[in-house]
Amino acid sequence: MKKFLLTQLLPQFYRHLAALAIIVLTAFLLDRLEPHLEIQIIALIFLLPVMGSTVLWGLTPGILAGILAFLAFNYYFIPPYYTLLVHQNQDLITLIIFLVVAVVMSQLIGQAREGTRLARIREWEATRMYKLISALASLQDTASIAQTLANHTLKTFDFEHVDVVLNDETGKLQQTASAPNAETPPFPPLLSLPLKTARRQEGEIRLWREQSHLTEEETRLLEAFTSQGALSIERIRLTKSEYKAQVLEESDRLKSSLLSSVSHELRSPLAAIKASVSSLRSGTVDWDTPARGELLEMIEDETDKLNQLVGNLLDMSRIESGALNLQRNWNAIGEIALGAASKMRKQLQDHQLEADFPDDLPLVPTDYVMIEQVFINLLSNSIKYAPRGTIIRMRAYSQGDFLHVVVMNQSPKVPVEDLERIFDKFHRITAADRVMGTGLGLSICKGIIEAHGGKIWAENQPEFFVFHFTLPLTLNGVRPEIPKETEDE
């Protein structure tokens, strides 16, 4: 309380004392000059210190100066002199008009001065708030927000020390930021304001200043600072909560899609294998009849399907977890493609496979097994969707620093809006819902090709549906060294 009296009331006392002094000085000077001045001029001159007091020191010192000027004018310059009595009506009217003019002028000038002061304060508040909001807008973690809030608060209000203490997930206070980065002062904080939003209290801000209390304007701006800081912290926490909810929602969606897709794909081969094995064990099938070979062939085919399904799931999990480690070597793309076609010769027996891989194609730095899996998946997709007896064509050619590979089939056209989405997990085209599959093959192809630094896409052509993918021809910026042929001497 003593500090408040010294810092707030004492300056006001000095301002009023100065207004008193300037009126006394003016009266003293006019008393010496009275023989040379008319009464109207003296009244006008008395208005000057009234106006000056209002401009320099505010409304109340100006009004005090006006009243004192009125009394001095009456006492020294209105007959009878050296008394406050007035004998003539004209002098009374002059005094009343003087008092009204002095007070009204003081009020008008005081209001204008106060309006200017408030405008400057509003500009200062708006500038500081803009700087704080701009600084907080780009931050993405609560620790940075707390430190920025502490720095701006310290700079704006000239505090000696600022602590921003945030609540953890359990609601307990945990200090996160201080400005400046020094020890907390030994005396208690001047203020402790909560960082509170409509949802919860995010923490509090503790302020140290030894010399003075806050003005009304500083208190208002400080409350705006704390409100903005609390909203920014809440924004970060709500964003994290929303992200977690989205991840959980996406995880549930993928789990449901995976279960609905894989469950049928697993049951069908297992049911066929179970039926075939049961038939062989039951003794109803003669071991020397062709039926025995057909059942064994069915077991083999369904086992291959299961193996491919499990392989796709493992590949997809490695791609999504970033654990896909490529073993790159210099390989011929034609050799990889024909190797994949050889493994799928049974599935391809109802289609016409055409391969065009020139002998002068450059070697490509690839993981042989992974790129072979890409060809297997693309051929498998072509077999599923293209009618029997149609052409499946593979070819490759150099294109700058990349090798461009094309796999095309005569399946139905894909809607334009689905061309990009066919490489998404579990995405199935409506017209192809009757086709068996997990919807992972093309997504795995995209992950493998992009891991090699290439690109994969699809397009509709007049007679074919075409898959394109590119692979870089360089490894660490260089191409393979091809040994020169030497002639026997």
In short:
By secondary structure, this protein is an alpha+beta fold.
Measured as a percent range, the helix fraction is: 55-70%
Sheet-strand content, in percent, reads 5-15%
Q: How many strands, which pairing sense, and closed or not: the largest β-sheet?
A: 5 strands, mixed
Spans of 5+ residues with little confidence (pLDDT < 50)? 1-5, 430-435, 485-489
Total DSSP helices: 10
Kindly state the number of beta strands: 11
Alpha-beta content class: alpha+beta
Q: Give the distance, in angstroms, between the N- and C-terminal Cα atoms.
A: 111 Å
Judging from the principal axes of the Cα atoms, what is the shape? rod-shaped
Mean pLDDT reading: 79
Output the helix-strand order.
HHHHHEEEEHHEHEEHEEHEE
> What integer value in Å does the Rg equal?
45 Å
Strand order of the largest sheet: 6-8-9-11-10
